[in-house]
Amino acid sequence: MAHPLESIFRPKTIAVIGTSRQEGTIGREILYNLLEFEFNGMVFPVNPKAPVIHSMKCYRSILEIPEDVDLAIIVVPKEHILRAAEECGLKGVKGIVAITAGFKEIGSQGVELERRLLEIVQRYKMRMIGPNCMGVINTEKDYMMNATFASGKPLPGHVAFISQSGALGAAILGHARELRLGISKFVSIGNKADTAADDLLDFLKDDEETRLILLYLENFGNPRRFTKVAKEISRQKPIIAVKSGRTLAGARAASSHTGALAGLDVAADALFEQCGVLRVTSVEELFDLAMAFNSQPIPKGDRVAIITNAGGPAIMATDACVNLGLTLPRLKPETRAKLKKMLPEEASIENPVDMIGSAKEKHYAEALQVVLPDDSIDTLLAIFVPPMVTGSLEVVATINRISKQFAKPVLGCFMGRQDVLQNIESKPGEMIPIYPYPESAVKAIEAMVRYRAWQMKPESSIRTFPVQREKVTLILEQVRQEQRRWLTEGEISEVMAAYAFPLPCSAIVRNVDEALAAIKDIGYPVVLKVTAPGLLHKSDVGGVLVDIRNDRELTQSIHQLSTNMATVKDTYPTYRIIIQQLIKGGRETIMGMALDPGFGPLIMFGLGGIYVEILKDVSFRVNPISELAAREMIESLRAKDLLMGARGEKPVHIDSIIENLQRLSQLVADFDILEQIDINPFIFSEDPAKCFVIDARIAVKLEKAAETKKPAAFQ
Amino acid sequence: MAHPLESIFRPKTIAVIGTSRQEGTIGREILYNLLEFEFNGMVFPVNPKAPVIHSMKCYRSILEIPEDVDLAIIVVPKEHILRAAEECGLKGVKGIVAITAGFKEIGSQGVELERRLLEIVQRYKMRMIGPNCMGVINTEKDYMMNATFASGKPLPGHVAFISQSGALGAAILGHARELRLGISKFVSIGNKADTAADDLLDFLKDDEETRLILLYLENFGNPRRFTKVAKEISRQKPIIAVKSGRTLAGARAASSHTGALAGLDVAADALFEQCGVLRVTSVEELFDLAMAFNSQPIPKGDRVAIITNAGGPAIMATDACVNLGLTLPRLKPETRAKLKKMLPEEASIENPVDMIGSAKEKHYAEALQVVLPDDSIDTLLAIFVPPMVTGSLEVVATINRISKQFAKPVLGCFMGRQDVLQNIESKPGEMIPIYPYPESAVKAIEAMVRYRAWQMKPESSIRTFPVQREKVTLILEQVRQEQRRWLTEGEISEVMAAYAFPLPCSAIVRNVDEALAAIKDIGYPVVLKVTAPGLLHKSDVGGVLVDIRNDRELTQSIHQLSTNMATVKDTYPTYRIIIQQLIKGGRETIMGMALDPGFGPLIMFGLGGIYVEILKDVSFRVNPISELAAREMIESLRAKDLLMGARGEKPVHIDSIIENLQRLSQLVADFDILEQIDINPFIFSEDPAKCFVIDARIAVKLEKAAETKKPAAFQ
């Protein structure tokens, strides 16, 4: 069965509704671009006010067109769009590209208009790109279609580009042309009312012309679907994304560690990381990477050789390599011997190989032929600084020619590239990428190495543990009915136990007698903690006493807690006391879940105490998380050595952390009602039997108007 | 008195020794460039083999020239350079630019040739640029001189450029021309045998034509002089530097924390920070900043307004601003009201002001005129994405014109800049900087804000405390004579006491009786530590016992230490025991000094324990340090909140840290023989009377061959 977006990209007939004969209008430019790019099906202009446009018969309505119409490009003013869409539906149109603006982007009245437009599209089972977009391009030979109002003719090639910003899309198309980056598909997705980036990724997955996908996104429509689709594609076709709006979420208020730390766009970072999308922070970097991925094979490893005719830029390239974690190995003795023979005495045959200023294309050719087969390197960076601006073109051509004899990536850095590029005549994708600065080239190499690591990463599935799900369902249902936000200590213990989190021995008691009875099972030393509905910060009310070693201390302590709670009895009229086995040693960690408004639940892990509070040294993943993702969460901590065994200490039991992260992931996935979880501290030690949840807080989503519900008292 | 480098930059007569008539040779290009750039003094070609070059009489030797010669450009093969230089001396030449290569850069034989060349230069009291350089440019009206072999004609302007790499210098000159960045002076310093960057900075300090200085450096000749000169200039004339070779020093072995952490180029970072030089990491960034500093006033603060015709790039600019710590305030109500009146309904009058795609130059003009006077902003970034490539030039011209009516910096971001720039005719420095990507523009703004902060920083002087310097001199002299590397515990205590570092009460004893006598002054609880010549890691031999509370424990402990030391008596035949007052509470920090081979002593400060070992959270400054520098060292720690008072704890006494850092700085400055100092831990607490040096290690530089000297035994 054909893909639902087939009608958008491969129509046989197109109607341009709202086209115009007036130069400089969008309606005119789109018609012009379609014809200029030689769309080989039929194009029908539609405009009730003009009988002829561009020597073509113009129809007053799409309904008057004597042929079937597959795709309609709508450029009418927003006042007329609903009728235009309705007529498309009646005509049997399958795809719409809605260029018209004035919808969601202008606020509430636009939101309503967009809703009504989408309703029409869905009623007639059409698909729509936009509204508020700048169109679609396909450069496939049989479907050459430039349905945008961008100026200039796209170069055909194998790079697909999806942009949430129309203006940026136009600028990017222009820039791609300058860099001779060939486009397979271009889509300006605008307001994404019907079709978002994930739909398009799904379409591009099987598009043979597309080998590399570039994204400019400001937000995600459906992060879960995006993750799923991107994951399916990204091992075969690299996806490189600019996601802007990174800092806008920062101001969001949050009431837990996990929540507060989840701001600042960690969700998008985590999501891209989890589905193998290479995130870059600027359009410049997007192009730097695209140039390399588009024309070069993926390197087998991180070892880089540099060949240069000038010391300065090679030092800068070396700095960049080392900073980004790439290695510059020594070349093999036989390689060095050959270089020594062919290069002048003043040259350096170390890596970087400095052929000095007198090097001509001949030297580049010989050096590449000697260095590229050396199996101690994976990628070659050729740097050329023209000392007297002669022969640049010849050097570029030579390097490019030799590079094709080997299966390793070769990148060029030419300081003074502008001249060179403007004079190169080559088909897109056939020329090595040429960078004006060494740092850009090295960034591209590093991204390719990172992509290789992603390709090589084993598939890791989501584990499901046997748990007492039904029990938790009942507890959470109870909480929901009572319209409480926070679970009580008792409920939390039951939930944690149901998902087999390791808990210290404990009991909940009301008085000294119950305590003395309970201690027989728990054993000294213990910790006492009060629990009361609505009480979140127990220490603040003197509600925690530690290291109680005998019956006498226990009795005293229970009285002490009673005195302390008496001072706050207006706020917390009833309370209970938790007696908990005292856990000594181990590392304090924090594990939690916070909801991101766009991405849903995020799982967090970090070291406890000052690491989380001052150093913000935590990692996030979008739920659910695989075993591998859990391991990466641990390994991405700056202070991970504290867990892995630093300063001669024994490492904690890492597999226990991984398992408990996955249990948390399962709990979160099982219950949509959960709003936040903070397990803090979660103590891990060398012995898996000595890892314990010491304290935890769990909140559920409240239905609105229930926020002010008073805490229930104990019966 | 004229500056010693006057003869290099402002000669009346120039001889080109080794010039040639052959096209494509360096000797020919330099002569050609001198004439092409219309040097208005006399130029004399010198070449024994040609009677005429370029229609000019050619002399066989500089000695034959009938006029006085101020400056000689030497291009002869290296075999002839000593004779050429000698003849320059005899002729009374004052300055030499030595283009010839084949010196220090090719290894030992070159080093010797360079030494002999320098000897001649110094004997005749000449000054020399190079050797192995590509020349000098001056664009001053009365001294127009292009004595380089770079192609293309430099644009006169107010930017001086000093490059340690000749090839990079040529590429940069070309790039500057493309960006219409006008040059005041250009110097390729080559091997810096006689003249280094600091000499040139000293010259540029009073050069009226130079308002901005750009540096490309690979290393420093004399870091102390560089710091001094750069500091004098940088408040008036911004200095922007690329320092490469950042990672090469990383592999250096080091035997202390301070030393190990001092790798990776922290010295250069510290030095630039201390003298107000703006360090960038690439030539691209160098130009991004130069464009802004060259044409725009320095902003008064960090508040940025963004005006755009497209959402995407404005979001990216916002991200960049927030990430770099700039603020985007709301505009004032009256500004917003005016914008609302002039812009279409769909526009956003928040900051970023989004005038939407229909905005023309008229809208930019109006918006700038309204937003620039708003005193809630300091800098304006104007973004323009041409939706149909019309009117770009007009928009640029308009923004530029309006910007000149206000004293605030205005930067432009035009996606599709290439076209625009190529068609702009303006004098260097008269056009606002235009960036192809928003991130570059924002980086430039951030650098200007940082520069402003540097300009506003109060002068901070180096403090000198009254200390017992003579006492330390005697101790170190003793250590030197015994050819020991490490000071003993006793010596360390005396040194620290002489410079008034706070030490806990302590005594050095040999046995139980002495210990019981000493304890009367110290008081329980105490710590016992063994000390033995050559013993660095006391804990490893069981040589530390803590929290000894009474006479019985003291006696037992001394016996215990005796037993422990018996097991290692072959290595440490004699030892003593230090009894030290036990210090409880406070924050453990580490303070130290390490020698950088290029920069001399660096002062380090950080939090102790895992902060230094795992998180590497430390800061460095080049010695000596001012009070302000000491304060900045504390404030630049990631975990500084632990000192400043985190989680409701009281802050430690910061002024004590500052004072002790300055005392350490003074100690280091007083004694060149010191090689490394590690004060670890140095405990600071809220009460200045409760801050103590707990342990310290001090090493001196050993004369060679003394490394293997055996530790001395106690008498």
UniProtKB/TrEMBL annotation, chains A, B:
<keyword id="KW-0067">ATP-binding</keyword>
<dbReference type="Pfam" id="PF13607">
    <property type="entry name" value="Succ_CoA_lig"/>
</dbReference>
<dbReference type="InterPro" id="IPR016102">
    <property type="entry name" value="Succinyl-CoA_synth-like"/>
</dbReference>
<dbReference type="Pfam" id="PF19045">
    <property type="entry name" value="Ligase_CoA_2"/>
</dbReference>
<dbReference type="InterPro" id="IPR036291">
    <property type="entry name" value="NAD(P)-bd_dom_sf"/>
</dbReference>
<keyword id="KW-0547">Nucleotide-binding</keyword>
<keyword id="KW-0436">Ligase</keyword>
<dbReference type="InterPro" id="IPR013815">
    <property type="entry name" value="ATP_grasp_subdomain_1"/>
</dbReference>
<dbReference type="InterPro" id="IPR043938">
    <property type="entry name" value="Ligase_CoA_dom"/>
</dbReference>
<dbReference type="Pfam" id="PF13380">
    <property type="entry name" value="CoA_binding_2"/>
</dbReference>
<dbReference type="InterPro" id="IPR003781">
    <property type="entry name" value="CoA-bd"/>
</dbReference>
<dbReference type="InterPro" id="IPR011761">
    <property type="entry name" value="ATP-grasp"/>
</dbReference>
<dbReference type="InterPro" id="IPR051538">
    <property type="entry name" value="Acyl-CoA_Synth/Transferase"/>
</dbReference>
<dbReference type="Pfam" id="PF13549">
    <property type="entry name" value="ATP-grasp_5"/>
</dbReference>
<dbReference type="GO" id="GO:0016874">
    <property type="term" value="F:ligase activity"/>
</dbReference>
<feature type="domain" description="ATP-grasp">
    <location>
        <begin position="493"/>
        <end position="529"/>
    </location>
</feature>
<dbReference type="InterPro" id="IPR032875">
    <property type="entry name" value="Succ_CoA_lig_flav_dom"/>
</dbReference>
<protein>
    <submittedName>
        <fullName>Acetate--CoA ligase family protein</fullName>
    </submittedName>
</protein>
